[in-house]
């Protein structure tokens, strides 16, 4: 699995302000609806419900909210960089400014886990995160996220 299989260029955004986790989940659900045709209410509710199980803020300013949804055939991703970091109750108690949300089919056990592992590995790279934080153009952010895998595959 590679990021370009789950992340479309249009699903990469820079958000000027997310005032709360709930507002961020609204934005993520809206992008998922607009780009992937995912039902907004279902996506929003599923993100909220998953977050009640424990924070998806993994540390170092990164959050990986994810949810399983009915009526999906494949895993879809949404990436946002927040211009102003958001308190996310992350494991290291640091605010979050890089968010990669995953939406997976309800029955996609292995595919969901592979996608989550791929995104986690990718965003564990401090150099890559520094590049993401230094850019505000969604097209550049998409390239930064996907170029490493593209060069490895070549």
Descriptive overview:
This protein starts with a helix and ends with a helix. The mean pLDDT is 91. A hairpin with a 2-residue loop joins strand 2 and strand 3. It is globular and about 35 Å long. The protein is an alpha/beta fold and 154 residues long. The chain is 47% helix and 25% strand. The longest helix is centred in the N-terminal third of the chain and has 16 residues, at 21-36.
Helix content: 40-55%
Order of helices and strands: HEHHEEEEEHHH
How many strand units?
6
Distance between the termini: 15 Å
Overall form: globular
In DSSP terms (H or I, runs of 4 or more residues), the helix count works out at: 6
Radius of gyration: 14 Å
In round numbers, the mean pLDDT is 91
Strand fraction: 25-35%
* Poorly predicted spans: none
The SS-based structural class is alpha/beta
Main β-sheet, in a few words? Answer: 6 strands, mixed
Short description:
The protein has 154 residues and is of the alpha/beta class.
